[in-house]
């Protein structure tokens, strides 16, 4: 068989590309972030499920393998910031309500709804209290934020923690679904509730 100039078999190169694309679509590889997504100067205010940047100024960005090592060695406090829709207060009698079941990284604290671009004073206080309850008063303690792949909620929450003076902020962009794709354990979680 005659090889093209440069010694490459272009037939194999095409097959390898197809296999890599298929693996990515099936979630068998680390997510590929859109390289052209720039960090905004402020918070992301809408379209929260969209490609995210590869960076977050002031934070360390980690892969699934790096997040797993932090988790196994208990070197960071994990925070899930996935939004939660509570049961509406005024449902008509007889209406069946099925709350969404959230599975996250074991040992995490689920601080629901703290990843929006604009937070009410009540939600900001909930966020601050949840951070302090789980991570303690030492703002240099490593804290890791996640949500889901291509979710700006964790980017916003990590950015806000940096602005509040936390100095060891870690952002895990693949989130709970990236964790699950790596066949790592998940557990059912309820949102954090402030105790009176």
TrEMBL record:
This is Rhodanese. Residues 123-188 form the Rhodanese domain. It comes from the Bacteria. InterPro entries: PQQ_CXXCW, Rhodanese-like_dom, Rhodanese-like_dom_sf. SUPFAM superfamilies: Rhodanese/Cell cycle control phosphatase (SSF52821). Transmembrane segments: none annotated.
């Amino acid at each position: 068989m005659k090889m093209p100039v440069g010694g490459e078999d272009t037939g194999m190169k095409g097959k390898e590309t197809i296999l890599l694309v298929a693996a990515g679509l099936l979630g068998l590889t680390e997510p590929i972030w859109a390289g052209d997504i720039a960090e905004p100067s402020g918070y992301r205010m809408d379209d929260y499920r969209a490609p995210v940047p590869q960076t977050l100024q002031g934070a360390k960005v980690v892969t699934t393998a790096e997040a797993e090592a932090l988790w196994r060695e208990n070197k960071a406090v994990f925070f899930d910031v996935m939004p939660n829709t509570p049961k509406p207060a005024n449902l008509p009698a007889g209406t069946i309500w099925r709350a969404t079941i959230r599975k996250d990284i074991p040992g995490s604290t689920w601080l629901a709804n703290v990843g929006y671009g604009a937070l009410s004073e009540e939600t900001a206080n909930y966020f601050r209290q949840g951070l302090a309850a789980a991570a303690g008063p030492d703002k240099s303690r490593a804290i890791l934020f996640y949500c889901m792949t291509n979710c700006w909620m964790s980017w916003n929450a990590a950015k806000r923690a940096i602005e509040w003076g936390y100095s060891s902020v870690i952002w895990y962009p693949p989130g709970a679904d990236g964790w699950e794709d790596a066949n790592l354990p998940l557990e059912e979680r309820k949102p954090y509730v402030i105790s009176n």
